[in-house]
């Protein structure tokens, strides 16, 4: 009998990350980190497909961007770039220690929603999902992001293997 491993997509998981009214940073450093996802204790997945939406504020500057990064933990406690694994403002010690998922070019359209993803978190880390990981968002649109919490979201779909 031949056994085949197929991906089994699990239920979407909503991240805790407060993006409403996130201030713009000209230098694309001061942003917001979400609460860490515990892959070792909760998801037990081989990958996570992450995506979401971000909405600009009123009268953003044209030709700017929103960046989405991930921070990982090698031991379940310490995170790359000085991230903490908590829903909090973050100015990374060194942003290049994080893994870039996407850069979203923005226009000068007020309250425009940008949908991004899905992106493989495991691929960002060289093929293996870290024990814990969190999303970090930063932008330089010239104005704070939209103030309504429901106009922003980050979710991931855990991916496991099943034998068929």
Question: How would you describe this protein?
Answer:
This protein has 164 residues and is mainly beta. The protein has one domain (5-163): Jelly Rolls (Sandwich). The chain contains two helices and eleven strands. The protein has helices at residues 39-43, 121-124; strands at 5-9, 13-14, 31-33, 37-38, 47-55, 64-73, 88-90, 99-106, 113-120, 132-139, 153-163. Strands 3, 4, 6, 7, 8 and 10 form a six-stranded antiparallel beta sheet that branches. The longest helix has 5 residues, at 39-43. The relative contact order is 0.38. The model has no long low-confidence stretch (mean pLDDT 95).
What tags apply to this protein structure?
164 residues; mainly beta; Jelly Rolls; six-stranded antiparallel beta sheet; five-stranded antiparallel beta sheet; 11 strands; globular
Quick summary of this structure?
The chain is mainly β.
> What percent strand?
35-45%
Oligomeric composition of the shown chains: single chain
The largest β sheet comes out as: 6 strands, antiparallel
Tell me, rounded to a whole number, the average pLDDT.
95
Element pattern in H and E: EEEEHEEEEEHEE
Question: What layout of secondary structure does this protein have?
Answer:
Blueprint: E1 5-9, E2 13-14, E3 31-33, E4 37-38, H1 39-43, E5 47-55, E6 64-73, E7 88-90, E8 99-106, E9 113-120, H2 121-124, E10 132-139, E11 153-163
Antiparallel strand pairs: 1-11, 2-11, 3-7, 3-10, 4-10, 5-9, 5-11, 6-8, 6-10
């Amino acid at each position: 009998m031949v056994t085949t491993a197929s991906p089994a997509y699990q239920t979407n998981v909503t991240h805790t990350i407060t993006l409403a009214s996130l201030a713009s940073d000209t230098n694309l450093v001061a942003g917001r980190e979400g609460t860490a996802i515990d892959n070792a204790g909760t998801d037990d997945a081989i990958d996570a497909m992450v995506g979401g939406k971000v909405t600009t504020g009123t009268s953003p500057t044209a030709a700017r961007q929103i960046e989405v990064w991930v921070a990982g933990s090698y031991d379940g406690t310490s995170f790359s770039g000085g991230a903490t694994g908590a829903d909090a403002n973050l100015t990374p010690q060194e942003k290049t220690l994080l893994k870039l998922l996407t850069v979203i070019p923005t226009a000068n359209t007020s309250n425009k929603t940008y949908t991004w993803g899905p992106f493989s978190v495991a691929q960002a880390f060289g093929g293996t999902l870290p024990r814990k990981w969190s999303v970090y968002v930063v932008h330089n649109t010239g104005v704070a992001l939209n103030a309504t919490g429901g106009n922003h979201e980050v979710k991931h779909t855990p991916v496991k293997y099943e034998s068929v």
